[in-house]
Amino acid sequence: MAKCQRNNIGSLVLDHSPSNAAGHFRLWTSFSTAAFRRKLFAAVSCGGSSRHHDHENDMLSSPSSSSGTKKASAAVTQSSTSEPVIKNSGGEKKTVSERNGRSDKLSDLLSIAEVESEMETKKKVEALEEQKRVVREMQIEDQLNRKAAACHVRLLAKEDSGARVTLAMLGAIPPLVGMLDLEDVESHIACLYALLNLGIGNDMNKAAIVKAGAVHKMLKIIYSSNAPSPSVSEAIVANFLGLSALDCNKPIIGSSGAIPFLVKTLQDLDHKSSAQAKQDALRALYNLSIFPSNIFFILETDLIPFLLNALGDMEVSERILSVLSNVVSTPEGRKAISNVQDAFPILVDVLNWTDSPGCQEKVSYILMVMAHKAYGDRQAMIEAGIVSSLLELTLLGSTLAQKRASRILECLRVDKGKQVSENYGGNLVATVSAPICGSSSSSVNPGKACLEETDDMMSEEKKAVKQLVQQSLQNNMRRIVKRANLPQDFVPSDHFKSLTSSSTSKSLPF
């Protein structure tokens, strides 16, 4: 052990000069500075050099030195031909070349990412400069350049949400709204669609467009002496649709006079509106009907009768029912629906022909609200044959439609019970128990006279119910007579007849 720890520096680096009479040692002159540094490092590194020499001497002196020498030479040969092995923290063995290869791949990936980041940054800078240039061009006086810039904004904001934000921050909205004052149709189309694209999915831009006065400028184009072209009208309808989706814009658009224009576009009396414009107008009216104050402006038009009569169209029925669902939330809206001729037969008929869960849920909601609020509407529903449709809906409809149908049936059942109790119970009892008869003939048989007078004032339905009650009581009396073994030709007395005639509907089995 002591042998392994010995550092034989003298044998490697220092030596005594035999010619030195004083016995002092000196450095060996044949070593260069670099060679001396390597020798010194090998000597002081825990005796590595001496242990190497001692290990070689031990191998030579041992009996199996020849075999040891062969193994050592084989190991040296193998180590010289194979790559060194390195263990990582997980215990996996990897060669130096593999590790260097992975390091090279990582450095390549990092360099590629750095290049891509630089390219992306460069593109963003170029896009920002382009957007600044476009906004500057919209602020100049040249009308052609402004129109070209508006078309460019339309393309930039079509599918890039980041460009919408940046262009709005750079101030693109006010000059676009200002272009609506021009008389050029192409300029109107360019700026309208640019504003439409800037507002897609961006509530701040929608609010900024309305704040800049776009609604009133668009209505000015519509109601100008020169009627706008169908393409301009379609672009304005599309803008109203997008802007009305924001809650804070609903009262502004509704009170501006846009609703009559949208209703006119939907009705298409002059056959100038496209199918897309009609759909956009209906959806915009739905957005505006969400705000309760706009219901008043909707009722000033003839939209409700038009919507009810258009319910047969499967493509728009669900959207129409959505508008009516908002209208029915106000008393004025319910009254407007009730005043439409055949409104309830039309709504009940929707339950019969539609299989759409959305239509079933919406029309059942409309009928449920109206049945809950007004007695006259319940009677109109019963006359329209709603009961059978509701019973079918409770079995085959969606879960929400089933619940709403059940509530309508319950409301109708309670109302029917009250009607039977009040009309056929309380009124008839009052006429029998407290007859008011002032004639001389009534003193002989006041009950009979009052009943005859009452029969004259009864409706046909009440008379039929009274006749059924009398027949039921007479049949019961015959069974009683038969059980008592009385003669079959037994004739009830006049007093019994008067009792049966004055009986009420309380004996009916319901």
Automatic annotation (TrEMBL):
- The protein's superkingdom reads Eukaryota
What Pfam families does the record tag this protein with?
ARM_PUB
Outline the extent of the U-box domain: 159-400
Per UniProt, which keywords does this protein have? Repeat
Q: Where is the composition biased (Basic and acidic residues)?
A: 90-102
- SUPFAM superfamilies, alphabetized: ARM repeat
Give the Gene3D superfamilies listed for this entry. Answer: Leucine-rich Repeat Variant
Region listing for Disordered, in residue ranges: 47-102
Q: Does the keyword Iron apply?
A: no
- InterPro entries with a match to the protein in the record: ARM-like, ARM-type_fold, ARM_PUB, Armadillo
- Protein name per Swiss-Prot or TrEMBL: U-box domain-containing protein
